[in-house]
Design brief:
It holds the Pfam family Polysacc_deac_1. This protein has one domain: Glycoside hydrolase/deacetylase (TIM Barrel, Alpha-Beta Barrel). It contains eight helices and ten strands. Helix 4 packs parallel to helix 5 and helix 6 runs parallel beside helix 7.
Length: 255
């Protein structure tokens, strides 16, 4: 059963903007402000029973911040495809502006494409008008390039979206915001072995894992991560496959 808090942010920075949170992290903060370990799960006012049975048994969602060079992004997607895995890419709009071909590359590989704001600035610090513009501008790029804004929005530089950002996302067409259960910390470039160890030590069925395109160590780590998931009887699927039902909550999480 999914908890009443998911679909919220990546590991780019932490923010305690959720109505209620329960700490699951341990250790000192990372270089970008996210504590190591599992981030706290925000609990919305909507009861968990609104999403009973959401998710696919024996699956996890590997989600990727969409930025970096096309060569690294393509290498990572190709590694996933060789293993029969599907991933979700939350694209930064300016990245798609610079490399518009990457939108089709993601989708043509059987993966999923979503919105990670236009400029990847601290969205929780923006006014409601500016926050909406960040989401809407990226959504417009997605629509122009693919014909769809995608199902998911993930806030930039925030673990949790504030109520104002959630409202802006809903206004832009994203009723639910995508978060994560496990932060790989791959953006700190700790080396492939550390990324593999961090994910496989902590991952559980139903998790949403935060990772990043644009990092060579992440590309190198992915085959071992996928092998380790298979050894645990887990499949890597898109966020929409993990949460296949229509969601009526502003945030959802598996924990």
């Amino acid at each position: 059963m999914a908890c009443a808090a998911t679909v919220l942010a990546d590991g780019c920075a932490s923010h305690g903007g959720s109505p209620v949170s329960t700490a699951r992290s341990a250790g000192s903060p990372s270089s970008n402000g996210v504590p190591p370990g599992r981030p706290s799960s925000a609990v919305s006012a909507t009861p968990a029973s609104t999403v009973p049975g959401a998710g696919v048994a024996g699956a996890v969602a590997l989600t990727f911040h969409g930025d970096g060079t096309p060569a690294l992004a393509t290498s990572l997607l190709s590694e996933a495809e060789r293993a029969g895995a599907q991933v979700t890419v939350l694209a930064v709009g300016r990245w798609l502006g610079e490399y518009p071909q990457m939108a089709r590359r993601v989708l043509d590989g059987g993966h999923e494409l979503g919105n990670h704001t236009e400029h990847h600035i601290d969205i929780d610090a923006l006014s409601p008008v500016a926050a909406f513009a960040e989401i809407e501008d990226c959504a417009a790029r997605l629509r122009r390039l693919t014909g769809s804004i995608g199902r998911w929005f993930r806030p930039s530089q925030a673990q949790h979206a504030t109520p104002a950002v959630r409202a802006a996302a809903a206004r832009a067409g994203y009723p639910t915001v995508l978060s994560y259960d496990l932060d790989s910390l791959d953006y700190t470039d700790p080396g492939p072995d550390a990324v593999v160890r961090r994910v496989l030590t902590a991952v559980r069925a139903g998790d949403v894992v935060s990772m990043h395109l644009g990092h060579g160590g992440t590309v190198a780590a992915l085959p071992a991560i996928l092998d380790g998931l298979r050894a645990r009887g887990l499949r890597a699927v898109t966020a929409s496959a993990l949460f296949p039902r229509s969601l009526s909550v502003p945030e959802v999480s598996r924990r």
